[in-house]
Amino acid sequence: MMPMTGIARILAAAMLSLPAVASPLFAEPPVGPPAPAAVDPNAASAPVRAMFTKYCNACHVGEKAKGGVDLEKLLGQGPPASHRKPWARLKENVEGGTMPPDDHPQPSQEEINALRDWVDAELKKIDCGRTVDPGRVTIRRLNRVEYDNTIRDLLGVDFHPADDFPSDDVGYGFDNIGDVLSLPPILMEKYLAAAETIAEQAIVTGSNARPLVKSYDADSMSAADGEPQDDARILTSDGEIAVAHAFPRDAAYIVRVRAYGQQAGKEPVKMAILVDGKTLKTVEVKAKSGAPEIYEVREKLRHGSRRVGAAFLNDFYDPDNPDEQQRDRNLVVESIEIEGPITAKDDPLPESHKRLIFRTPKKPEEFPECASAVLEKFMLRAFRRPVTGGEVSKLVRLVEMARENGDSFERGVQLAVQAVLASPQFLFRVELYRPKRDKKGKPINAESGAPLNPFEIASRLSYFLWSSMPDDELFKLALDGGLTKDEVLEKQAKRMLRDPKAQAFVENFAGQWLQLRLLKTVNPDRGQFATFDEPLRNAMQQESELFFASIMREDKSVLDFIDSDYTFLNERLAQHYGIPDVTGPQFRRVKLKGKERGGLITQASVLTVTSNASRTSPVKRGKWVLEQILGSPPPPAPPNVPQLADDAKGVLTGTLRQRMEQHRSDPSCASCHARLDPPGFGLENYDAVGAWRAKEGEFPIDASAKLPTGESFSGAAELKAILYKTRKTEFVTCLSEKMLTYALGRGLEDFDVCTVEKIVKDVSADQYRFSRMVLEIVKSDPFRKRRG
Fold first, then answer.
1. What is the DSSP letter of 253?
2. Which of 49, 204, 207, 478 could form a disulfide with 454 if both were Cys (CB 3.0 to 4.6 A apart)?
3. Which pLDDT tens digit goes with each residue over 738-747?
4. Domains of the chain
């Protein structure tokens, strides 16, 4: 067998010889349409100039301009159409009454209307009929979810190597943004190790294959029963400590538990090793503190995600025993280790092996031909594009070198697969610019952008909706060029939304848009919210995911996200909501009575992640509504602002609302809170874990408020009615911007406004159907082109 040092050198050479691609660290600098010429500040309408001078310039001109907003500088940067965001925010603040602050002179309604009309007219001057810049996306590394899903679909192995990778950075609210997906050295080391492990598990080479060993430390174990103790978890009463492990295929595995007992009573600690609650082996843990031992069991197990645990079986407690060492018997688990799959000679070949190695040589001279056929098919799918003969031949050489060193054909292919999985062509989603050239060979820069080739479109489509590589149907359409046609793109997008793999879109887009991922980390105060537990946490998450999935799969109106007369509940969550006649652990669609629930903003998941540990947070909830529903995020809080106390004692002095009104008495705070607080106050009937309440302590809840735009409401039902009836265009715009950002893998720029406006117009004209938003995104120029 080839020594590992030799393998490493060969793999390094193979990787370096593959076509080089840029990384985010060396990405091309952003270039775009030429900046508009600066305009004379006096070109603004006279009433607007007069208003700025009278009410604004004292605070918003010069180097010390408050909030960093220098109006003279903003006017000098060009027309508002080329700097939409600051002008839109300025108009919103003045029209909503948050600027000027309440303790400053206030403009009349006529002056406000003049500013609004001028800004609106200027913003509409952008010509959406002209050639639109499609923008440029920084070359994107596969994030952790995309890596795992791609490995699953490429090789048919169902385990999650990316669990060991560093967390992905987030930009513009999502973790698939090219600009922030860097490649630190530690991640490259993880890629190399994962490539070796994946290749060895996907391809069977005989008895010399090294089984995968996965070890889970105390931090990786579930904490439902076991309590943390140094680098271990302790069970002080009968219960179970477990981990979730993905078994890649049906095979034999060894489960090892490193543990010791805190001994007491007449018998030693007894422990059961379990898989999915079934006892595989019961052992006596005679080991003591300072000298843990390993207890193991070998068993044939089916593939898939399984719960592997260690259970404490014989709790003993005698607090009156004169010997302190004999008062309490406990089980302490330091780690759980799983080895496998362990392949025997008579075991059937795994599906991953059969999928990859569809031809094997019968004699040595057939090695190159068989290796070329196997690797060309594999590399096309791994690189998500056709490969050249030169690329294939370099990896065929690895197979031949393995044979020369006495290894099998399968071992040679294993090494080649390892090199492919560590290649930048696999790890990055590559979109190369191929400019058209004139007769002299000089590139012709197309103002409308350069079309992506069909394989690049296939990858954009699959990673948008599935967070994974294209399937065979997309590859076939890419090969024959069909994906460049609108009708084909529409048909494929609809097919992909119906496919089970679209669950990835629910978990990754919705999970980040709605900030559901934070639900795993929130820890409400168990003293105040005793009903909150892990089953309830999981039920909250599942309700929101099922609700989003139903709108997506049934092609409902996206306005159902604002308000609906149905949701998805099981008995546990229904009890939490106070909804009767829902029994059993299974989730089902439930028709809602009344308006207390329905839509996203009244779901317990959202209400919990926008609360503090011991109380609600109207500020967090209001911020969530502004950012995720209306697309109008507030400015960051000024420095050195004291936080409202997060404790239960405050309720003795009045409701949270009353305490907040005192807290925001500072005029510099009031301007922002005028936007943040009203939506949050409208949700005050829901406590910090989303349960309905009429009082806070002994004080009745006041859920009335007035939005900066003038609409008054009382409670969540009236707030949702306002959002549904008068702010739906803002919501559809916000959702379009977020979905387009996620689809492109980049933040939106001013030149994207025409694309967003078209999406909103077409979605509105098609009864706000979910699929129309997706279809308009995949047919848009930014999705199908890149900057020339």
1. E
2. 478
3. 999 999 999 9
4. 1-28+144-209+349-430 (no CATH), 44-123 (no CATH), 213-342 (2.60.120.260), 507-726 (no CATH)
